[in-house]
Amino acid sequence: MNFLHRERAELEALMPGLDQALARHPLAELEQAPSPAVAAFKAAGGPGLLVPAANSGAGASALQAVRVQRAVGARCPSLAVATTMHHFSVAGLAAAAEYGDGLAGALLESVAKQRLLLASAFAEGRPGRNILTPHLTAERRGDRIVLNGSKMPCSLSRSMDLLTASVALTGPDGVPRLAVALIPADTPGITVHPFWGTPILAGAESDEVRLTDVELDPSMVVATEVTADAVPDALNVAGFLWFELLLTAGYLGAASALVERALRRPGAAEDDPTPYLVPVEGAMLAVEAVARAMADEPWDEALLVRALTARYAAQDAIAESTRACLAALGGMSFVSSPDGSYLASAALALTFHPPARTRMARPLREHLDGRPLRIG
């Protein structure tokens, strides 16, 4: 069958053996915590996917990366969600390495060679709060920066080697600005606590990470120009581009796993597959269009708006496709195996990631009117 063949070929080229390793396990086994998928990802060299070739990584393009994430999501939705957080943190480090003093480049090389996993403690969405507003505090104490607070949920919380976190750091002018901290997982003061209360996507290890008087060398904290007005700077635009595209591709992979089951069911060859096939394929084409644009167009607000558009279109496509798939699979499939209903529930979780469409309604309207894009 040609469905997903291109994505799986890309996955095999960039992470040899991962697809077969995941296929050997039942879905329920992959989606639990702890999951064998995380070890398989590391063994296949997955942490280095977006590390530039100059830093010993695979140097995958955005187009290659979204295809890989769809293939991963089709085998293990939890792994796609968890590794999205790793990949976009790596992409941010790669961007910082172009302007930094060499620390980011050296760290990238360690990620690729030692197959390190990066968890992301960037601010999650909360009602009434901007998602760029950090939930961790940072203060200068002598020659150290001390962090306090917690991140929940935090994917890869129990497998991470490094934690990347957004913090509010007051500059010389007294204005708090967004900064990015790089924290080794074994730093004193970091603890992990149960948080995720549903079996859906449990394999992503999205528990709570607490930081209590965690001390860092200032060289491990990278400041940005983002203040309380939340207008993204270039580094944040890049981060959001990677986040939206990788996340959307992974969830389209989960929906694609359900489509694949519908295509392979007895009697499917005589039916019209377009009600469940076309929405997912069309949404992936939109994601790929933005990924292609990243190769030769400016990474600006206009491109980010296109990425958000592709993501919100994918949410609608997933809802439409999963309903059609479950109807095509029928009641006996529903009662005989939990896989179909699980995949449908997992795929629909794309809706819950920030920035929510309802929160972005006014910012998108303002952007259309010529004002700077705000991430609400």
UniProtKB/TrEMBL annotation:
The yes or no answer to whether the keyword Disulfide bond is present is no
Could you cite one Gene Ontology molecular function of this protein? acyl-CoA dehydrogenase activity
Q: Which InterPro entries match?
A: Acyl-CoA_Oxase/DH_mid-dom_sf, AcylCoA_DH/ox_N_sf, AcylCoA_DH/oxidase_NM_dom_sf
Q: Which UniProt keywords apply?
A: FAD, Flavoprotein, Oxidoreductase
Q: What is the lineage of its organism?
A: Bacteria, Bacillati, Actinomycetota, Actinomycetes, Kitasatosporales
Q: Which organism is it from?
A: Kitasatospora cineracea
User: What protein name does the entry list?
Assistant: Alkylation response protein AidB-like acyl-CoA dehydrogenase
